[in-house]
Amino acid sequence: MTTLHKEVEVPPYKIVIDAEREYRPGAPDPNGCYYARAMITRLDGEPVYKNFVTYQIERGDAFGDPQRAFRDAEERVREAIANRFRTTELTSSLPP
Which residues constitute the domain of residue 12? Predict the structure, then answer.
């Protein structure tokens, strides 16, 4: 397990968080920032939501260090679980 990969079991879920570094071409190293994304599965293999066996948390905000990116992803995972994997639906302001 690298410093850019983290796995956590929070029954009934398994959470895998991966951080990635985005490099800025032409800038001296160290440069760039870190993003994290997560994948949620169930420990028993059952679907996480409806018929989906995985639930993806997409890339979040950019941070200067990987630990802050991990914390951001963990917060978004907790929010998804607390909301039972329901996302806020956008409603159009245009008339039907």
Answer: 5-82
